[in-house]
Every structure is written in structure tokens, then in C-alpha cells.
Amino acid sequence: MAKVLMKGNEAMALAAIYAGCEAFYGYPITPQNELPEYLSKHMALHGKAFVQSESEVAAINMVYGAAGAGARVMTSSSSPGIALKQEGITYIAGAELPAVIINVMRGGPGLGGIQPSQGDYKQITRGGGNGDYYLYSLAPESLQEAVDLIKESFDIADYFRNPVMIAVDGLIGQMMEPVDFDREVPKWDLLPKTWAADGNPQGREKNIINSLYLDPLVLEQHNLKLKAKYDEMRKNHQRYELINMKDADIVIVAYGSVARIARTAVEMLTEKGVKCGILKPITIFPYPDQAFAELPDSVRNLLVVEMSTGQMLDDVKIANEGKLPIHFYGRVGGVVPEAEEIVQAVLKIVGGENNG
In this structure, is residue 356 part of a structural domain? Predict the structure, then answer.
């Protein structure tokens, strides 16, 4: 299949089909509606299940059931809809079930607005529901990267037996770009789903899917087992990109759409003689603290840029370990920062033009 020009939400839906998604359960909310709309037609054409549920709560519990039966399953929503799904998500994480969840973020809090935002960062990276759990969370900056990560995310979910969150914003969901669906993505070494409650077709012992442990000592051991899994993610599965780092004097820390805008800002700064790099987290959980250890000695300042009031700042501070001054620039409420704004924020820090 050659490159095709597609809208973001529809391309992400098709990527899920390419990944072998067997069932989708969801409920409409802007700005991700084209994703379930696309799947409502094309899942049936591929002999797969699509259900528009009566609510977000119903949808995530359908995901729980299908995942427990061993199916490759996905849901999608946008910020307030993801908030409504949190109880089901914590059940899925507690029961150690694989599922893929796409969050096309919009402005908040509350109903907010339908324009792009990154205001769900803490909801995504801190679990969001009750208990000690995390989602393996990926934040692409382009539609091609989103497609590639979604194609891989079903393997990641199966490998860890854990929900995977794809964190994009309304900008990626609504833009149109050429996408290559045939690009190779990493393949994970997966085991058969012998744990699934699938009717035990090979005569296995009966499987029970559960996240309820009334004995506190048993629940403690379960939580420690989950912690070991999250520690493994942190140790061996951080993802990030370091861009334009040679002799960089200042580094912009940005993820998702903002990292893409920062690339243009860096080009503009280079013309002004300012040596500026980008540290782009691809996983926002586990947060790529290893990337900060790789920054060159020339770096004297960090500038965090987000479409929020600074939700990623805490993670940057932890990863930085007090080594470098940290500055912040953000736009909120669905306002997308422009490259020129980022340039001015950098120039204010480094003291003007020609400070290379």
C-alpha cells in the first residue's frame, strides 16, 4: 500500500485494523468522532466487532470483558470521556489485561472545549483511577508516528498484559497527512494467552479474570507483582528522541504536537545563531529520564513547552535532578503555541540573538 492522504482519526483507526484489532467499543465525543465512525464501517468489512455503547462507562467495561476473553481490543475517547472510563481502566490494569486506549485530548477542565490540549498529562501518567497502577503511554508528534505506534501498541499491551494509552491531541486527530501503513514496526516476543477466560478450548484449568483480593496480604503481593512490571518498563522500555544536540546551549523539552512545532522553532533559532536542541519524550510513562543523562555538557538551560499549565514540569524536575535551570512556556484552553512564540521564549532565556 503506497502512502495515502488521510485524516488523523481515520488513519489511527486503520492502524488498529492493521494491528489485528478484533473488537472496538466506544462512545462519541469530539474531537475523536471520525475514529469510531471509520471503524463502524470497516471493522465489519474485516469480520471484526464494533459496538457503539450507551456510555463511556459501558464501553470500557465491554473492553474489560473482551480483553479478559483474550481478544485484541481497543477504545478511544477524548479527555472527559477518558475521565469517565477511569474506573474500568483501573479494573483492566488490576486484572492484568491488554487493551489499547486512544485519547485525543481536548481543552479542560470539565467539558472545556474541543480544541487541542495536553491537559491530560497527569491523568495519563499517574494512573488516573484508584490504586497503584500505570499505563504504558505513548505520545506521537505526527500522524505517521501515531500510526506506527498504534500498530505496535497491541503487541506492547499483550507483552506486558497491561493497558497502553496513545496520547494525541485534537491537532493530530484532525490534521491530514500522507501515511505509509506498510512501514515495519518492532515485533514483540509474545506468549500464548493461556490466562484468558476463553472457554478453555484445550482443556486447561478454568481461568478467572479478577482484580478483587479481600485478603490484604494477597493484594499486597499482587501490587508488588504489578510494581515489578512497571519497574521493568522504566528500566528497559523508555523511548525518546534527542534532536539537534551538537553544542546545544539550550534544550526544549516537548512531546506530541508541541515537539513538532519546536522543530520549526529550532530552525528559526539556528538562523539567529542560537544553538538549540529538543528532548522529545515518546513514552510519557515510563518517563525518559535516561535522556537527560545524555544531554551534552554544553547545555545550560531547559525550556519545557506544553499545551498545559505545566503538567510535565514535575517529571522534568525529577529527571533533571537539579542540574540545570528549568524554564516554562505554555498555552492552554485549546490555544496551540506558534513557533515564533517558542523562539521568543528561548531568546528571552539566552539573552537575545547571536548568543551561539
Answer: no
Three-class DSSP category at 353: coil
Residues 110-163: tens digit of each pLDDT: 999 999 999 999 999 999 999 999 999 999 999 999 999 999 999 999 999 999
In which domain, by residue range, is 306 found? Answer: 241-350
One-letter amino acid of 117: S
Instruction: Compute CA 1 distance to the chain's CA centroid, rounded to the nearest angstrom.
Output: 26
Residue 254 Cα distances to 130, 139, 307, 343, angstroms: 28, 10, 10, 14
**Domain of 144: which CATH number?**
3.40.50.970
Q: Would you say 248 and 259 are in contact if contact means Cβ atoms under 8 Å apart?
A: no
User: What span, in angstroms and rounded, lies between the C-alpha atoms of 88 and 61?
Assistant: 6
pTM assigned to the model: 0.96
Q: Where are the beta strands (DSSP E) in 204-354?
A: 240-243, 250-253, 276-281, 283-285, 301-306, 326-330
Nearest-angstrom CA–CA distance, 31 and 116:
8
Q: Is residue 355 domain-resident?
A: no
> Which sign does the torsion angle of CA 229, 235, 236, 237 carry?
positive
